[in-house]
Amino acid sequence: MQFLSKYSLKKYHTFGTDVYTKCFTEINSVTQFKDLLQEDIYKNNAILILGGGSNLLFTKNFNGLIVKNNLHGIEIIKQDENHVWVKAAAGENWHQFVLWCVNHNYGGVENLSLIPGCVGASPMQNIGAYGVEIKDVCEQVNAIDVKTGEEKTFSNADCKFGYRESVFKHAYKNKYLIASVVFKLSKKPVFNTSYGAIEQELKAMGVIQLSVKAISDAVINIRSSKLPDPAKIGNAGSFFKNPEVSKQKHDKLKQQYPNLVAYALDNGNYKLAAGWLIEQCGFKGKRFGDAGVHVNQALVLVNYGTASGSEIYNLSQQILDAVKNTYGVTLEREVNIY
Predict the structure, then answer these.
(1) What is the arithmetic mean of pLDDT over 211-217?
(2) Is 287 a catalytic residue?
(3) Rg (CA), the chain
(4) Buried b (16+ CB within 10 A) or exposed e, 132-145
(5) Mean pLDDT, the chain, integer
(6) Choice among 122, 164, 223, 244 that is catalytic
(7) Is 334 an annotated catalytic residue?
(8) Which residues contact 189 (CB under 8 A, 6 or more apart)?
(9) Strand order in the sheet with 138-145
(10) For 169-188, what is the mean pLDDT?
(11) Over residues 62-73, mean pLDDT
(12) Mean pLDDT, to the nearest integer, of 323-327?
């Protein structure tokens, strides 16, 4: 196992800021990770397990050991007439996994096309888009205790999924390496096209017969038109969560701002569109040096080249303050800060 000192992380996270880690290594198997646990360099340093680096922002160099999760493999573990259970290793690229499912005509994740990152991060964040979340398809998460090496299986219920939340972000944060995820997918998919602009895009594409591929293609088209490619402009996708407010708060805001974009929730509360709030505060398309807010989507903060993590973080704080002062609504960062 190779350990690299003062190693650049620039190509390992999608914001592409110029930061270093004290030490860096990669693991390519569960056995290799268990062996790593016995190393003094592992025992004596702060540890950060890194997947695709698509949902984090480094505001400074990392004073510890970064372990790059390179576990790979996709396999069908069982199936019946209606469903197939697919196990994907945590290091698999998420979008490539979605395309694998689409190519096999397995339904359930097509609405999650083109989300950056790796499979292992999907249950951590309970990633979601266009009316679908990981909690809808996740059967179980296979993980390894980062101190003892003990393997543990988490059921869907064990994961305690919430809006961009799971048990891995709180009670078990930094306590487990996610090794693989089992997804329950449909051989007879029920298509979800009512969210966002999917129906309009399908119509523009001339789609007559719905399929998982048609929906995936539509989502890819929509996301490509709205969101910057991390390979070209550094970003981590949506930087902020859509805030949830009471009906009373919503009604008051709606009276003051008739164009308020909000969605009613089953619990009686409302989810506000954070992008709309940010745009109304004048940040959409704004640039502060090389840190900025994307011109097509105010939820996305970007690094146009040489912005530091601190500059991007400070911009996010300006946005938080502006939305709070204007609307009395507290936004929450979706991106993990280091």
Answers:
(1) 96
(2) no
(3) 20
(4) bbbbbbbbbbbbbe
(5) 95
(6) 164
(7) yes
(8) 106, 107, 108, 110, 212
(9) 74-79, 83-89, 176-186, 138-145, 151-155
(10) 94
(11) 97
(12) 98
| Exposed / middle / buried, residue 55 (Cβ in 10 Å: 0-12, 13-18, 19+) | buried
Q: Is 223 exposed, middle or buried (0-12, 13-18, 19+ CB in 10 A)?
A: buried
The domain that holds 322 is classified in CATH as 3.90.78.10
Q: How does pLDDT run across 20-54, given as a tens digit for each residue?
A: 999 999 999 999 999 999 999 999 999 999 999 99
Instruction: Provide the β-strand partners of residue 148.
Output: none
Where in the sequence is the domain holding 51, given as residue range(s)? 4-69
Regarding whether 295 and 184 lie in a shared domain, the answer is: no
Please list, in sequence order, all residues whose beta carbon lies within 8 angstroms of the beta carbon of residue 5, skipping any fewer than 6 positions away. Answer: 22, 23, 24
- Catalytic residue selected from 54, 113, 216, 238: 238
Q: What is the pLDDT of residues 222-248, one digit of tens each?
A: 999 888 999 899 999 999 999 999 999
Residue 238 appears among annotated catalytic residues: yes
> Are 9 and 116 in the same domain?
no
Strand-pairing partners, residue 244, are 271
Distance (Å, whole) CA 29 – CA 39: 16
pLDDT at 1: 85
In sequence order, what are the beta bridge partners of 20? 8
- Written as six digits, the tokens of 153 are 């299986």
Residue 60 Cα distances to 21, 64, 210, angstroms: 9, 12, 47
What is the reported pLDDT for 159? 97
Considering the domain architecture, whether residues 130 and 156 belong to the same structural domain is answered as yes
Q: Domain total for the chain?
A: 3
* pTM for the whole structure: 0.88
222 and 78 belong to one structural domain:
yes
